[in-house]
Amino acid sequence: MKKILNEVRQHLMTGVSHMIPFVVAGGVLIAFSIMLSGVKAGSGADVTNPMLKNLLNLGVAGFTMMVPVLAGYIAYSIADRPGLAPGMIGGYLAGQIGAGFLGGIIAGIIAGYVANWIKGWSVPEILRPIMPIFVIPLLATIIVGSLLQYVVGVPISNFMAGLTSWLKAMSDGSQVVFGIILGAMIAFDMGGPINKTAFLFGAGLIEQGVYTVMGPIAVAICIPPLAMALATTLAPNKYTSQERQAGKGAFFMGLIGITEGAIPFAAADPIRVIPSIVTGSAIGGAIAAVSGVGDHAPHGGPIVLPVVDNRLMFIVAVIVGVLISALMVNMLKKEVTEEVPEVEEGADELDLEFDLD
């Protein structure tokens, strides 16, 4: 069992190592464009300058590629080049159906093992040359795509609708519990269906003049990336060199309220990272809820301070949440014993000689 977990972790690390440049480049470009444009009450990020808008679009493109690259290289790690196309296509579909990075991980693992399974088929000699460049990617893509669209997609849609109804019922109860729930949901999948449900719920209430739901959400949004930035600074020996670089980018993303800045860390080590950031965000959300922190913009992070009610407690909630998450994740993580191997020189060159054994 331990051997299997180590293999899966290695596949995840391969996907993460290729994904990090997309997260950092996309996130910093988005952060830079929003930072120079500001946030408006009622509408959120207000990027109108043409040059900054172009930077924003570039950043969004980087983020759009993030999950497909993660899934693609997880599949590549498992099945070599035949897994790359079905993995990336599966990752793209995971983004389209709102499954987030967790859906991308699942898509990559399925694509990789399906492609590996097909590679093991005994086929006539005449078919062997076209197996890795045609048959394996085609069949694996069909299988992964069908599973995501028909098996995963509909339950996610129904799940989000059910979560929204549940949040409406919970909003009339204890503010502490409600704040904990909102904060935990935001941090759990960082842009996935659970995160989006909480965010859209809070953003929708802004139009009705209710700002105290978006307040805890705005606090929780920035805690995961800021916490991981702090964690990599406090205990650099527990992170790979790539993760330490990602921590620097996560800091800027946290300031602008881009929760996805913590995804590389969560994807590489979900068992330790996700509970840590969920705990910090839940506590930060609870502090904000009890203190009556309100946010007039559908956005999060310190950049929304100009449109926040009770700014002092907003800052306190963020600091407490960040400290708890950073300290907790560093307590759980062990020192890094080996770095993720770099991509071999010339690995991107086309090689049609595949070993199907």
User: How can the largest sheet be summarized?
Assistant: 2 strands, antiparallel
What proportion of the residues form beta strands (DSSP E)?
under 5%
Helical content class: over 70%
The domain count comes to 2
Count of helix runs: 12
Q: What is the averaged pLDDT score? A: 89
What is the topological layout?
Elements: H1 2-37, E1 39-40, E2 44-45, H2 50-79, H3 84-96, H4 100-119, H5 131-170, H6 175-189, H7 193-206, H8 214-234, H9 241-255, H10 263-268, H11 270-290, E3 294-295, E4 308-309, H12 311-332
Antiparallel strand pairs: 1-2, 3-4
Helix pairs in contact: 1-2, 1-9, 2-3, 2-4, 3-4, 3-5, 4-5, 5-7, 6-7, 6-8, 6-11, 8-9, 8-11, 8-12, 11-12
Keywords:
disordered C terminus; single chain; 4 strands; 357 residues; two-stranded antiparallel ribbon; 2 domains; mainly alpha; 2% strand; 12 helices
Q: Could you characterize the architecture of this molecule?
A:
Residues 8-342 form the PTS EIIC type-2 domain. It is a multi-pass membrane protein. Its main location: membrane. The chain has twelve helices and four strands. With 357 residues, it is an all-alpha fold. Helix 1 packs parallel to helix 9 (241-255), helix 2 packs parallel to helix 4 (100-119) and helix 4 (100-119) runs antiparallel to helix 5. The longest helix has 40 residues, at 131-170. The chain is globular. Mean pLDDT is 89; it is low at 342-357.
